[in-house]
Amino acid sequence: MNATPVGALLLCRAVPETVRPPAHLLREPMVLTPAGDGWSVLVPEGRPWRGDGTAGGGEEPVDRVTGGWAAALAVGSTWPVLALWWDGDRAGYTLASGFRRPVGYVWLADGTPVGEDEAMSTFAARLGLDPVMDVQALEALTRPDPDADADARLRGLLAVLARTGVALPPGLGPGEPADRLRAAAGTQREAERIEWAGWRDAVRVELDAVESGSLGPWVRGPRARTLAAAQLVAGVPLLLVGLRRRSGGWLVAGAALLAQGALGLAYDRFRDEAEA
Fold first, then answer.
1. d(C-alpha 61, C-alpha 75), whole Å
2. Rounded Cα–Cα distance for residues 101 and 71 (Å)
3. Residues near 199 by Cβ (< 8 Å), separated by ≥ 6?
4. What confidence tens digit (pLDDT) does each residue in 171-188 have?
5. Which helix (H) or strand (E) holds 242?
6. Which pLDDT score is estimated for 72?
7. Beta bridge partners of 31
8. pLDDT given for residue 77 in this prediction
9. CA-CA distance, 10 to 96, in Å (whole number)?
10. How far is C-alpha 148 from the chain's CA centre?
11. In the chain, domain spans
């Protein structure tokens, strides 16, 4: 284990049955478990990021990796994804919602805010938070506070999200290293492991979810085809960004979007032919 605690959580505003299919397409081992009323959390089992969050070297910073994962999960979904991350120098979040540009905020280890103030109001609007009370609580996290370090800032963020139903299981908290997060998630009664077992298994999981209706009503018809095409269009530039930056997180995001789009178009056509 690295001397510096590095960790990440992916909070999804959807039940595990809905999160499971796109999570498989990330091709990363994770633990999936409920995280409150209408929320789930994905805990990465691997650590494809640098332990100290610094520039240089082979692996990527944790915020870049988790940002790519959040974008891949959220694009084309009806639910947002919030990536919480921390390392020895900083902590922060990235909120991905549909095809909109992700919004995020960063604090230094001692809690010093270094993000853009308007990010909090955008964050609140996209999650449907109270425009007065909740926004005031979020804005307080952007002001200097000598008694609040980076972990405390994230706990404050989670306290606001608790009003939307978020309730992280015991042991899944800001500042914990990745191995402890995995262990805590694995002890939950409803926890399940998400593991990549090849494209055939991923397709099966996706089709099972479609047939069960857990992905919602828009899996067929003109709207579904438009969504699938948009996922294909969005996936290509993300792959190019990943190749240019040598970013595993964005490469995974692009590949996941391409896979979701292709599966969506294939399923829609298959069902139309079967009913013809």
1. 22
2. 9
3. 259
4. 999 999 999 999 999 999
5. helix 221-245
6. 83
7. 43, 193
8. 78
9. 10
10. 25
11. 7-193, 197-275
